[in-house]
Structures are given as structure tokens and as C-alpha cells.
Hints:
Elements: E1 7-11, E2 14-19, E3 22-28, E4 34-40, H1 56-86, H2 93-139, H3 144-166, H4 170-190, H5 197-201, H6 211-232, H7 238-265, H8 269-281, H9 291-302
Antiparallel strand pairs: 1-2, 2-3, 3-4
Amino acid sequence: MKSSNIGGQAVMEGIMMMNKDRYSVAVRRPDGEIEVKVEQHKPLTKHKELLKVPILRGVFSFADSMIVGMSSLMYSASFYEDEEEEKKKPATKEEEEQQKAKKEKTDRLMMYGTVTFSVVIAVVLFLMVPYFLSELLHKAGAGTTLTAVAEAFVRVALFLGYLAAISRMEDIQRVFMYHGAEHKTIFCYEAGEELTVENVRKQGRFHPRCGTSFMFVLIIIATIVSSIVFSIIDITNPFLRMLAHLILLPLVVGISYEFNRYAGRSESVISRALRWPGLMIQHLTVFEPDDSMIEVAITAMKEVIPDDGSDEW
Length: 313
């Protein structure tokens, strides 16, 4: 199998596929038709040399993925907002333009609000809660190593608990089914097979470059990096410690990216052993899709496949 540069993300009733600066979003509309949008993403940096630097390229790649992912999610949601609007009394042309401008402004505010809310929740859940629990152990006489292990255990437990909780929601379950369609379609393409529903359906659904695996790796690496730093620099103030975690985040993201990059390209025994935990966690976020979801994934994938074979990772 080849190792492609194409990655994706499940959105509301659809899938986003991205290859370098080009991405497509395919959405199953309420009327059953597939709507496709193809865009060029303007990366955060135009200096291609920076994207070749290990660690640093991971930071830029992660940021670009977040921007495209959030934009794609808002785009997919708009179809179902439009469905609700159509049920209301038709407006005049002037009112429609006002509603459109208002909606665009609301969408931007929602995007910024969602990102801010997510960051706050992540800080509280994965930084503050593990820290205070580990401090209780520390005050009880636990050593630095045991405290670090306990902090890592709490973070992983919170992460798994969160995934298990949201996977029980009906709407999220459909998103996770589209997630499975995304993985299967990428596997089919990387296997060099024709992109048909039958060929995609028989592929595996757990991919080593999955975002779920990336987040799990990020939590583990964050714990290792912070343990090393805090063993050298003793920071006891909880707010300064939280600030230190945030300052270290780009480094953690960069290392996690390199780990996933290696795991996604190599088939060595070491690589397979390292990526195994992440693949197991995908049982919580990657569900078996139906054929209609696979059709959407194929539609999105075809829009980003290069003609010159320049998609090797």
C-alpha cells in the first residue's frame, strides 16, 4: 500500500477530504442529493522550507487542519439550518440579503465561540483536574514519578470517558459512521483499488493517521514532556503550571505529529506496537458506515486526488 498525503474529517452528514492546500467537502443534503464544495486553503505560512522542518511542520499542519476542519463543519451544518429556514415564511429579497449577512456574522461568532469553549473545556479537563488530583497524591507523600503516572492516568481516563459519553448520542453516532467511511475510502485509495462502494466497504476502518489516535498520543506526550520540564523547573503555582502547559503545547503537538507520521508510514514491528493503543481507541469514534455514507466519502475523495501522483507522504 502507498502512504498518501490525503486526510479527512467527518462533518455533519458529510466528509471533508484534504490533500495539501486543496480540500473538498461533500454533504448529503436533506433531499438526498450530494453537494460538493472544493476550495484552496491558504496555509498559515507560505514558506515551504518551514514545512520541511520536523516538529515545526506539525504545528503548522495541526493549525491548518483546525481551521479547515471548523470551516467544513460550519459549511455542513448550514444545509440543515437552511432546511429549517425553508419551513418559515418566504422573505423579500432585501430581507433575504439581511438574513444572509446576519447568518454569516453569526456563523463566524459561533465558530470563534466553539473554539474558545473547546479550549476552556480542554484546559479544565486535561490540565486543571489532573493537576489538582495529582497534588492530592503529592501531599499524601507520593513521589514525582508516581504523581506523573497518576496525572497521565487521569488524563487518559477523562479522554476515554468523554469519547464513550458522546458516542452514545444519536447525531454523534452518525458522524462517527461517516468517520468510518472516510477511513475506509482512504484505505481503498492507498491500496490502489478502484473507488467503488463495494471496494471501499471491504476495507478496514481503523487508520493509523486518525485524529483520535493523534489526540491520544498528544495526551501521552504532553505528560512525558511536562514531567521532564517540571522535574527541572519546580512550578507549584497551579495557574503558572497551566500557563507552562500551554507554552509547551506547540512542542507537544509537533512531537505528536512526527510520531503519527512515522506510525502511518512504517510497517515495522515497533511502529505497529506503538500505534496499537491508538487503533484500539478508534473503536469509540469510528463506526461501520452504510453505503450512502461511503458514496459521500468517495465523492469527496475524488476531488482531491492529484493527476501527477504528488500525494505521497
